[in-house]
Amino acid sequence: MITLWNVLQENKKMSNDPLHGKTLKTIVEQLVDFYGFDTLAELININCFKENPSVNSSLKFLRKTDWARKKVEELYVRTLPKLKE
Question: Cβ distance 25 to 55 under 8 Å?
C-alpha cells in the first residue's frame, strides 16, 4: 500500500542525492568550467581529459565506461560546495 508518507520519504531521499536531476553533460560541463581539462586530467587519470579533450568526446567515453563515470560523479560531489561559492 502506497501512502503519502511513503511518497514523501522517497522524495526526501531523492532530494538528498546531489546527482539527482543532473545530466552527465551538465556535470562534465560544470567540472570543465571550474577546473579545465588539464586539471581534470590530473585529478582523474583518463585519456578523454588528456588527448584532444572535448565535452562531447568525454561524454561518449563516460557513457560507455562505468568506472570512469563513477570517478567523475565522485569528483563532482566533492566539488559541489566549491561550485556554490
Answer: yes
